[in-house]
């Protein structure tokens, strides 16, 4: 896979570049928004890994201009905790996923693999879990062929849980990935889980509470 890495922090950029290269990817690392635009438009990429706070042009501008120029490759944004309130803007501008710093490099690689799983030229990456279908690229869910109306956080919660199907995800981890620094509480998470469970009634995927730890998505077949 050919990956364009845009990160001005030398330590983080070096760590990400080394991790991606060791996983067998071809990486071009640039350190500012102007270079990101030039490289992004001049070459063909399988994915972009992009910091938001960049010299020259910020990450928002880079995403917007590359998408306007016809870039179709998935974009994974790396963002500082202080910038997380902008995540809705990122997704609306054309980012496909985001990671909050500091993050585990293994998770970065796993997210990239998920983004790049869709075949070239296809705008959907549909994964079926029994009668539940998730289209990560288009943020679309259907249950037994019927579209399911999910809010952005509900979709993200479902995406995280089914991405680790059969594994327990800690409440703290879910709160870090779903909420801003100030608006997340255990009550808010439990409310979100409850809403999602109601919408998944009849689905082949159940969300199970693991007491004192977190939540787990489990696959089962309805008769």
UniProtKB/TrEMBL annotation:
User: What PANTHER family would the database entry show?
Assistant: REGULATOR OF RPOS, TRANSCRIPTIONAL REGULATORY PROTEIN TCTD
Q: Does the keyword GTP-binding apply?
A: no
What residue stretches are annotated with the OmpR/PhoB-type domain?
124-219
Q: Any idea where the Response regulatory domain is?
A: 2-116
* Protein's GO biological process: regulation of DNA-templated transcription
Tell me one Pfam family matched here: Response_reg
| Native species | Achromobacter veterisilvae
* Molecular function as annotated in GO: phosphorelay response regulator activity; transcription cis-regulatory region binding
> Which positions carry 4-aspartylphosphate?
51
CDD domains registered for this protein in UniProt: trans_reg_C
Query: Which keywords describe this protein according to UniProt?
Result: DNA-binding, Phosphoprotein, Transcription, Transcription regulation, Two-component regulatory system
**UniProt DNA-binding region:** 124-219
The name this protein carries in UniProt is Response regulator transcription factor
Write down the Gene3D superfamilies for this protein, in alphabetical order.
3.40.50.2300, 6.10.250.690, Winged helix-like DNA-binding domain superfamily/Winged helix DNA-binding domain (1.10.10.10)
Which InterPro entries does the UniProt record give?
Answer: CheY-like_superfamily, OmpR/PhoB-type_DNA-bd, Sig_transdc_resp-reg_receiver, WalR-like, WH-like_DNA-bd_sf
The superkingdom of the source organism is Bacteria
Record keyword Oxidoreductase present:
no
Q: Where is the signal peptide?
A: none
A GO CC term assigned to this protein in UniProt: protein-DNA complex
């Amino acid at each position: 896979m050919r990956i364009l890495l845009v990160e001005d922090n030398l330590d983080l950029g070096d760590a990400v570049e080394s991790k991606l290269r060791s996983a067998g990817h071809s990486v071009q690392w640039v350190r500012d928004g102007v270079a990101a635009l030039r490289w992004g438009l001049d070459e063909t990429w399988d994915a972009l890994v992009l910091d938001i706070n960049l010299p020259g042009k910020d990450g928002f501008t880079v995403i917007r201009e590359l998408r306007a120029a016809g870039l179709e490759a998935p974009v994974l944004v790396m963002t500082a905790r202080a910038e997380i309130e902008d995540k809705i803007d990122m997704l609306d501008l054309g980012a496909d996923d985001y990671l909050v710093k500091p993050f585990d490099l293994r998770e970065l690689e796993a997210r990239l693999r998920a983004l790049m799983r869709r075949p070239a030229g296809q705008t959907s990456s549909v994964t079926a879990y029994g009668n539940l279908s998730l289209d990560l690229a288009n943020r679309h869910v259907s249950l037994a062929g019927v579209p399911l109306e999910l809010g952005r956080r509900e979709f993200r919660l479902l995406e995280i849980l089914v991405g680790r199907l059969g594994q327990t995800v800690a409440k703290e981890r879910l709160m870090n990935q779903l909420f801003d620094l100030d608006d997340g509480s255990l009550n808010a998470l439990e409310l979100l889980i409850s809403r999602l469970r109601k919408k998944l009634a009849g689905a082949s995927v159940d969300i199970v509470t693991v007491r004192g730890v977190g939540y787990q998505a489990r696959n089962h077949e309805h008769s």
